[in-house]
Design brief:
Helices cover 34% and strands 22% of the residues. It folds into 2 domains: 167 residues, Chloramphenicol Acetyltransferase, CATH 3.30.559; 263 residues, Nonribosomal peptide synthetase, condensation domain (Chloramphenicol Acetyltransferase, 2-Layer Sandwich). By secondary structure, the chain is α+β, with helices and mostly antiparallel strands.
C-alpha cells in the first residue's frame, strides 16, 4: 500500500541538510538505591526485547508499483543492536555536554535501509542541585513519515508508568500496537482505504483556494487580524541551512504561565507564543537583524482523534503574527492572541479534508521547493515554526527512575533555520529549540530571552 501524501512528503523533501526526523530528549533520575551499572542493565534488558511491533518493524519499500511510490514492508531481520545504543557523557556531565551530544545525534539522517528509528540511552549525567541523585537520559528519534510530534509522544508515553514501584517495563517497540484504524482522511491518497476519494480531494482543494482568497480580502478590509501566509519578511531565520544542528532546552513553571494567561485573559498557548516572539525579537535585535515587518509563525494543529492510531501524520497549520515589530509586551501579546484566534476560527469552520488540504497549501513551498531546486532561495512563506505538543500531566517513571524532563526536537527546512517546540509535563512547559548551527550561533541565549519574555508578561499582571 503506498504511503499517503501527508506521510510520503517528508521522505520526498529529505536531504543531508534537512533530515526529516523528530526527536525527544527525556531526562531521568536513577531509582533509589540503584548502583552505577543500572543504565547498562536497562540497556541489556531492552536489548533482549526482540518482539518488535508495528511501526518499529517497518522499513521503506521503494520503488513501489508503476508510479514508484513509497510504501512500508516488514523487515524480517531487524538489527536491534543498531537501533538501540548506549553512550556516556564526558565529565563533568553537565546539561551543556548533554545538549551538545543530542545536537550531534539529531544532525544525522536515519538509515533508509532499516526501520526509521533510533533510541539512545545516555549515562553519566551529573546530579541537578540541590539533589545528589545521578541522572541519565533517553534520546529517541523517529522519521516524520512514521510519526508526527503528537504520535511520537503518544508512543513514548506507553513505556512509562505513574507507579514508582512498577518494574520490568517494556521498551517502546513492544508497547506500540496497531490499533484498529479510525478512518483518517489523507488528501490525494485515492488508493488508501481511509475514506478520501478524488471528489473529496477536489472539494478540499477548491475550499482551500476560496479560504485563502477570503483571508486576503478580510485582512485587506480590516475584518480579521489573521496573519497571512506567504507575506513574511526576509530575515536571518530564512536562509539556506546546513545539516549541523544545535539543540537547546529548558523548562518553565506551568503555574507561572497559567497565572499570567488567566490574569491577562488569553490562552496558555498565547503565552508560550508570546514568549517565543519576545525571544526572537531580543535575539535578532542583539544581532541588528530585526525586520521592520513582524515575523510570522506557522503553528501546527493536531487533527488526530484521540482513538486514532499514533502512526503517520494528522496535521494542519495556522499562521500567527508574532508582533516582533512592537516594543510593548502588552501590544505584542494582543496582536498574537487576536491573530491566532481569528486563524483558528477559520480553520475550525472547515471539514477534516479541507483542514489537511489547507495545511498542505500553507506548507507547499517547503514541499515543492526541494523538488525544483528553489528551497530557501525565495521569499519565506513564514519565518518560523512554533509548535505545542501535549505531554503527560503527572509524574512518570521507568522501572522506578523518575522522569524529570521531556524536551522535543524537530525538523528544519531550507529557508527555515529555527524551530521552537514545547511540551507540557508534570507542572512545567518544557521548550526544545532546534536550530541550524551555522546560521544561528549561540541559539542557547534564546533560553534566557524566553525567561525575560515570561517575566515581561508577569509584569503586565
Amino acid at each position: 500500500m503506498p504511503l499517503p501524501i501527508t506521510d510520503a512528503a517528508w521522505l520526498m523533501v529529505e536531504s543531508a541538510e534537512t533530515p526529516q526526523h523528530v526527536g525527544v530528549l527525556m531526562v531521568f533520575e536513577y531509582p533509589e538505591g540503584a548502583d552505577d551499572g543500572w543504565v547498562r542493565h536497562l540497556y541489556e534488558r531492552f536489548g533482549t526485547a526482540r518482539d518488535i511491533t508495528w511501526p518499529f518493524n517497518q522499513r521503506l519499500k521503494h520503488p513501489y508499483g508503476r508510479f514508484k511510490l513509497y510504501a512500508w514492508e516488514t523487515d524480517p531481520a531487524i538489527d536491534l543492536d543498531y537501533h538501540l545504543r548506549l553512550s556516556a557523557l564526558p565529565a563533568p556531565g553537565r546539561p551543556r555536554e548533554l545538549l551538545i551530544h543530542v545536537s550531534r545525534l539529531h544532525s544525522v539522517m536515519l538509515d533508509r535501509t532499516r526501520p526509521l528509528w533510533e533510541i539512545h540511552l545516555i549515562d553519566q549525567i551529573a546530579p541537578e542541585p540541590p539533589s545528589d541523585v545521578p541522572r541519565f537520559a533517553m534520546y529517541a528519534k523517529f522519521h516524520h513519515s512514521v510519526f508526527d510530534g503528537v504520535g511520537a509522544m503518544r508512543v513514548m508515553r506507553r513505556m512509562f508508568s505513574e507507579d514508582p514501584d512498577q518494574r520490568d517495563m517494556a521498551p517502546p517497540w513492544q508497547t506500540s500496537t496497531r490499533a484498529q484504524r479510525v478512518p483518517r482522511d489523507n488528501v490525494l491518497d485515492v488508493v488508501d482505504p481511509r475514506g478520501v476519494t478524488i471528489a473529496s480531494a477536489r472539494q478540499g482543494i477548491a475550499t482551500t483556494a476560496r479560504t485563502m482568497l477570503d483571508q486576503f480580502r478580510d485582512r485587506r478590509d480590516g475584518v480579521t487580524n489573521e496573519a497571512l501566509p506567504f507575506v513574511a519578511p526576509r530575515s536571518i531565520l530564512n536562509t539556506r541551512i546546513t545539516g549541523a544542528r544545535r539543540f537547546a532546552a529548558d523548562g518553565w513553571s506551568f503555574d507561572r504561565m497559567l497565572a499570567a494567561s488567566t490574569a491577562l485573559g488569553v490562552s496558555l498557548n498565547d503565552i508560550v507564543v508570546a514568549m517565543s516572539g519576545h525571544a526572537l525579537r531580543a535575539y535578532l535585535l542583539e544581532r541588528d537583524a530585526l525586520p521592520q515587518q513582524p515575523l510570522t509563525a506557522m503553528i501546527p494543529v493536531n487533527i488526530r482523534d484521540e482513538h486514532e492510531d499514533a502512526g503517520g501524520n494528522a496535521l494542519s497549520f495556522v499562521v500567527a503574527d508574532l508582533g516582533t515589530n512592537l516594543e510593548d509586551p502588552g501590544d505584542r501579546l494582543r496582536r498574537i492572541s487576536e491573530s491566532i484566534a481569528d486563524a483558528k476560527r477559520r480553520l475550525l469552520a472547515m471539514g477534516r479534508v479541507e483542514r489537511i488540504t489547507y495545511g498542505l497549501a500553507i506548507a507547499s513551498p517547503y514541499l515543492i521547493g526541494p523538488l525544483i531546486g528553489l528551497a530557501g532561495h525565495g521569499p519565506p512563506p513564514m519565518n518560523i515554526v512554533v509548535s505545542n505538543v501535549p505531554g503527560p500531566e503527572n509524574t512518570h517513571y521507568l522501572d522506578g527512575a523518575v522522569l524529570r524532563g521531556i524536551y522535543p526536537a524537530s525538523v528544519l527546512e531550507q529557508g527555515q533555520a529555527l524551530n521552537i517546540t514545547m511540551t507540557s509535563y508534570d507542572g512545567e512547559m518544557q521548550f526544545g529549540l532546534t536550530a541550524c548551527r551555522r546560521n544561528l550561533p549561540h541559539v542557547q541565549s534564546m533560553l534566557g530571552y524566553l525567561e525575560d519574555g515570561l517575566a515581561a508578561l508577569e509584569a503586565l499582571v
